[in-house]
Write a sequence for this structure.
């Protein structure tokens, strides 16, 4: 999920293993993020994450865990900021739990939250005009990686994962991420991805990037619906997203497509040069 112009390259947060579990940590988002918890690493991983955060001076710890592990995290000082029902094979809920080492970080931007509150109280509009014949929507392949990096670099100044690296995109495609794109007259103008977990039958709908010239055509909702249709044929049971609080249009896209808002991850993720709060949405099919 990251793309940097050459002159903007910085030391990025890195993913690594603690036991069999996967974490991401670094100074960009200034946090430790437990992305995938393996039961064999519990509960020792809680102390290991805490030690890492203290050693590196990180101000937030963030974990996505099955609900049955919640009490131990709660006793370790974590609180729940969001929940995704049925996240694990449609059977068990996921808790998004957090711990702040700096109390200032737990405060979201008041104006952004006020605008988001207004959005949540607005009407749902599921209508989306059909794309005209100059547009084609399809599954992307490794051969598209070069064009993809060009689009990402026009939309994002920075990102928490290396989406500006064609090699990274190709690697993701060969694993479990499915990218979709909209082309206008043969030129790539919009991208999204589904980070698929075949084992758990869920997918994160993410990496939405639409060129400024294409805004207003509701390309994002066409991409979202195409990903859902594709994944449902593959037996996926739940979808979720972590959308930028400061992006009303992206949040409205998920709201209009009948996703449910379940919480805000405060000052959680570095995007476009600053740490932003993120909203969690989910949909069970």
């Amino acid at each position: 999920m990251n793309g940097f112009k050459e002159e903007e390259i910085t030391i990025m947060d890195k993913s690594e293993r603690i036991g069999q579990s996967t974490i991401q940590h670094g100074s960009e988002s200034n946090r430790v993020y437990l992305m995938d918890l393996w039961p064999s690493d519990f509960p020792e991983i809680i102390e290991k994450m805490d030690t890492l955060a203290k050693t590196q001076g990180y101000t937030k710890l963030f974990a996505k865990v099955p609900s049955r592990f919640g009490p131990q995290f709660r006793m370790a000082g974590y609180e729940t900021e969001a929940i995704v029902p049925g996240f694990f094979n449609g059977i068990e809920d996921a808790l998004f739990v957090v711990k702040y080492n700096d109390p200032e970080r737990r405060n979201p931007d008041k104006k952004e939250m006020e605008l988001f509150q207004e959005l949540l109280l607005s009407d749902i509009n599921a209508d989306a005009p059909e794309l005209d014949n100059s547009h084609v929507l399809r599954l992307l392949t490794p051969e598209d990686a070069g064009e993809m990096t060009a689009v990402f670099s026009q939309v994002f100044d920075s990102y928490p994962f290396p989406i500006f690296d064609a090699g990274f995109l190709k690697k993701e495609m060969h694993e479990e991420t499915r990218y979709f794109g909209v082309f206008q007259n043969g030129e790539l103008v919009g991208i999204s991805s589904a980070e698929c977990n075949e084992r758990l039958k869920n997918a994160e709908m993410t990496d939405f990037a639409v060129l400024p010239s294409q805004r207003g055509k509701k390309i994002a909702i066409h991409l979202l619906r195409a990903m859902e249709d594709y994944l449902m044929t593959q037996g996926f049971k739940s979808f979720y997203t972590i959308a930028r609080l400061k992006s009303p249009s992206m949040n409205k896209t998920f709201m209009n497509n009948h996703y449910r808002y379940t919480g805000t991850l405060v000052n959680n993720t570095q995007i476009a040069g600053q740490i932003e709060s993120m909203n969690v949405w989910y949909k069970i099919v």
Q: What stands out?
A: The longest strand covers residues 260-271. The first helix runs from residue 44 to 56. The chain has two domains: 10-106, 110-284.
